[in-house]
Amino acid sequence: MKKKRRLMLRTLCAILALCLGAAVALPMAYATTPEREAVLATGQRSRNNPDGIFTAPAAVTSLRLFHPETRQATRLIASNIIEQLISGHSDPDAVRRIMAYAPIVTDGELPPLDMGDDLLQYLLHMLQIGARNVYIALRETDRPDVYQIITLFSTQAGEVFWVPQGIEYDAATGWIYGTDNDGILGIGFDYNVSQYMVRSASDAWQRPIGYNRLFDIATPLVLTFLDTLRFPFVYQGRDWMIQIWKGYYGPSNGAEIGIYEKDTGHAFFWDASDTMLDISMQLYQEDTLFFDYGTQRTWWTGGFRYGNYLLTPLLPARQLRLTGTINFEDPGMRDAFWASFEANKNDLITGTMDGMIFSFDWQTG
Description:
- The chain is of the alpha+beta class.
- 25% of the residues lie in helices and 36% in strands.
- The chain has 2 domains: 17-172, no CATH class; 197-362, no CATH class.
């Protein structure tokens, strides 16, 4: 019996060691190097290779579904994200460089193919037409440095098509975002490839849920520990509230700003406001800039950058500094909010009102 227990213990230790070794080795095995990135640039026209010649993928008869360069780029992007999750840091420009090697398609080169919005029908259609050599590519738009992310593929019949994915990539800012304002592929969040952060989309699936205080009470159940400030006010006969958060969101540090409203006298549930305002936000880990969210026209803005529990511990809310702005468009709403801010602020937050723009600085402490 003792021998069996020792054998089981050794087997368990071996499995744990294998998992740990794989977790450490995976980023090293697929770490981005200039040599590997150079492979992706061969024969492609891109921002980093403007003189390259793009050749549409030829029809193939093999069972290969994804183009080798797309598989390689996907591995490199995934390995950089895994590297950040494990080590707490990574090359901030690695994913941006990989994205720059994607082939760029201009109007008139290839015909588009409407596959619809239903994912199951999309996949069935891909199988029916015998899609092969699937290539993730970029399509030029009428905005500088902004590209539409498309799927480029050939069929067994020798045809070549491109399919829109409802996603755009801004090479200047590093944002990848859903064009319908519902996040990448409708998940409710967009991603910044240079800051390794996600942000909430303005028309995310969370919008119909609104807000109530049970959300804040329950956050420890999902390893989320936040500081929050609420600024309620009355405007146009309705109760309004602007609320801000900062803290520890599971495997990330992050912050949020939300605009909510409800009928006066309703004591519990707040609706997501239909009023959209230009909101900006910057989060600091003590005195070091952690991320710059930029400016978004929205009712709720949330930014989150991932770290690591063990190697680079994330900071609690009291060690995070949050700054930002809210650009009001109605003097009545601005004045009602400002009165609430003056009445409900604490010693750690300061604010100024310059015309219609409210600026705040929520310090550590």
